[in-house]
Amino acid sequence: MEKWIERQKHIIDFTLSSLLRRKGKNAALIIVYTLVVFMVASVVFFVQAIKREASLILQDSPDMIIQRMVIGRHDLIPVSHGDRVKSIRGVSAVKARLWGYYYDPVTGANYTLMVSEERRLSAGSIIIGAGVSRARIAFEGDTIEFKAHDGAVIDLEVKSTINSESELVSSDLILVSETDFRRLFGVPAGYATDLAVKVRNPRERPTVALKVAELLPDTRQILRDEILRTYDAVFNWRGGMMLVILSGMLMAFIIFAWDKASGLSSEERREIGILKAVGWETSDVLVMKFWEGMVLSLSSLFSGVLLAYAHVFFTSSFLFEPALKGWAVLYPKFKAVPFIDPFQLAMLCFLVVVPYTVATIIPVWRAATVDPDSVMR
Amino acid sequence: MRKSSLFFFYLLINLVLIILMFAHASHQQTVRVASLKEMACIVERFGLTDLCIFTEASYTRNLSQADLHAPFQDGPMSLEHFPSGSLATPPQVIRKIDGKVD
User: Fold this and answer.
1) pLDDT tens for residues A354-374?
2) What pLDDT shows up at residue A19?
3) Do the beta carbons of residue A253 and residue A36 sit within 8 Å?
4) Would you call A59 helix, strand, or coil by DSSP?
5) Which domain holds residue A251?
6) Which of A188, A376, A355, A132 has the alpha carbon at shortest distance from A260?
7) Do A83 and A220 have their domain in common?
8) Of A22-31, A128-137, A266-275, B76-85, which range is least confident?
9) Which residues on chain B are in Cβ contact (under 8 Å) with A169?
10) Which of A221, A239, A376, B82 could form a disulfide with B89 if both were Cys (CB 3.0 to 4.6 A apart)?
11) Whether A54 and B51 lie within 8 Å, measured CB to CB
12) Is-contact A44 A348, C-beta < 8 A?
């Protein structure tokens, strides 16, 4: 065993000297390879973190939302519909939700205005999310102007701001009193944006949804499972830009591996010829090239993964921010929680190390099996 | 020092860094439990349904609450123009229908 280890160490010594002889080429190779691993690992880490956070944060969202549909659009729902829903067996509570979007011409941002029964805000006061506070440079005691549906200007005083730790759910949120909400948007009394339904037994939710659909045919029911599935679907590997990024990376990697697999440089061929002429076996050459592949791919894998971790969890994925932000003025400042597991690392290792090593071994085997004299000429 | 020894030392440093990365992740998961719980609490108290990631359009702000769309329902040239729209996939049901047609 000791002899075997010593032999491998000698081969690695030789491999490293051989790699150092072509410093420039191999350094460029490692940089490109690291960048490929970095991008793939960043996407994998970011997507997994957001999906896990969404599933943890939204696990207490309403059991079911009932929206009224009019001419194919979400419309105001009569609060009296809630009493009819409450009569369904299994429904424990129905709450009318009042919320809507407000476009702020001053900043060009969209806010989510919501009535919170729990905070019991008095008319004229609001609680704002950290993103709104940043966009409007407004803090406790300041007033923000809103333009009501009839053109009247309403001044609302900031009572407090929501903790910036929760920006992922509350960055663009403005909590208002019911009176101010109805005054701003002209929502008549007895109407709400939608209904939030609480169902006693989670297994009964689909049945209750069917009963609601029968009872109120002009409504659409959104179950909590569907809400949670939405984020799984958005950040699924098939989802929009994720697919573009991953396929771009995959194509780059295929070109890169194909270039390697399509043949060796004349210098490398000459080296193999000389080694065979001085007595190296084909298997020795293959072991040397295996170590060469391992040195390059392991170095790139480790540096790519570590850089991706720093990018996603220390710099808040600053490279992805322009894509996620889009045209939005208001973007939440949040640091994703690092939900990573060894399986992700194993997957990355399998995706990048194995194909590269295999791709380098085949042309070497072809070169190592030919006559050394013909290779050296 | 032999080159192979240097290489194994380099690998060892990287392995230690990877272990530290997992340790940091595990530590952060514990430390950030409070903020995750706080966000879950806000979701429950205010009856929220979505994460505030894409605020540029109403249908991307509350992805799970957006109207049901059919491609080009608003006009033959109404192509998706919000960048975040390219991140959000069509609903599962539409994909299933497409699957059968294809």
Assistant:
1) 777 777 777 777 777 777 777
2) 87
3) yes
4) helix
5) 2-58+234-376
6) A355
7) yes
8) B76-85
9) 39, 42-43, 48, 51-52
10) A239
11) yes
12) yes
Instruction: Look up tokens 């609001």; give the residue.
Output: A126
Kindly identify which residue of chain B lies nearest to residue A339, measuring between CA atoms.
Answer: B25
Measure B77 CA to nearest chain A CA, in Å: 19
Decide if A174 contacts A113 (C-beta within 8 A): yes
Burial (CB count within 10 angstroms: exposed 0-12, middle 13-18, buried 19+), residue B41: middle
Token readout for A19 is 């790699």
A58–B32 CB contact, under 8 Å: no
Indicate the residue among A231, A256, A278 that finishes a domain: A231
Number of other residues whose CB lies within 10 A of the CB of residue A188: 8
Q: Are strands A173-176 and A109-115 parallel, antiparallel or unpaired?
A: parallel
Point out the domain boundary residue: A231, A263, A283: A231
Q: Residue A363: left if φ>0, alpha if ψ -120 to 50, beta else—which one?
A: alpha
Mean pLDDT lowest among A66-80, A147-161, A165-179, B83-97: B83-97
DSSP-assigned letter for residue A119:
T
Residue that the structure tokens 């293959």 belong to: A286
CA-wise closest residue to A66 among A86, A48, A52, A50: A86
Residues of B in contact with A95 (CB under 8 A): 47
Mean pLDDT to the nearest integer, B45-61: 82
Tally of CA atoms within 13 A in the half-sphere of A138 that contains its CB = 25
Q: A309 touching B, CB under 8 A?
A: yes
Distance (Å, rounded) from C-alpha A320 to C-alpha A339?
18
Which residues, including other chains, have CB under 8 Å from residue A192's CB and lie 6 or more apart? A76, A77, A79, A96, A97, A98
Between chains, do A116 and B17 touch, taking CB under 8 Å as contact?
no
Mutate: best of B1, B4, B24, B82, partner A, most A CBs <10 A: B4
| Interface ipTM | 0.81
Q: Which of A61, A230, A328 sits opposite B63 (nearest CB)?
A: A230
pTM, entire model? 0.83
Same domain, A22 and A68: no
